[in-house]
Specification:
CATH class of the domain at 16-89: Mainly Alpha
CATH architecture of the domain at 16-89: Orthogonal Bundle
Strand content: under 5%
Number of helices: 9
Shape: flat
Order of helices and strands: HHHHHHHHH
Structural class: mainly alpha
Largest sheet: none
Length: 129
């Protein structure tokens, strides 16, 4: 019996729940491996070879190579784990977040300083306004 998930209907948001966690387990474990300098060195030296050591889907590997973190989210990645990829590339969390929204780091920072994204269009369809 499938669980009812009304929270999945939030525009522009990927909810990391148990199903996403299972789907992204190996992707997220790969990301956590980047906490060790020796693994970051190996990854930077030959990304594909390092990724092939992990039982991730080809689609997950391609999303990592392309640094398409939004796709990684859709494929089960958790943003806190995916941030390790950005850190390996020398990017701050703000730079990563900005790139995922199509904004510059400054635009993303300014948006967050002024209350975050607007509520209009960001509620789930069943929510009362």
């Amino acid at each position: 019996m499938a669980l009812e998930k009304p929270y999945l209907d939030v525009p522009g948001t990927t909810i990391f729940d148990a199903e996403q966690s299972r789907k992204g387990y190996h992707l997220n474990q790969f990301c956590m491996s980047l906490m060790k300098e020796e693994n970051r060195v190996r990854f930077r030296a030959d990304e594909r070879a390092y990724l092939d050591e992990w039982p991730m889907t080809e689609e997950q590997k391609q999303a990592v190579i392309a640094r398409d973190l939004n796709r990684c989210l859709a494929l089960g990645g958790n943003i806190y784990f995916l941030a390790k990829i950005g850190a390996t590339d020398g990017k701050s969390y703000q730079q990563i977040a900005g790139s995922m929204t199509g904004m510059s780091e400054q635009e993303s920072r300014d948006m967050m300083l002024h209350g975050g994204r607007p509520i209009e269009g960001n509620r789930y369809s069943g929510e009362k306004k």
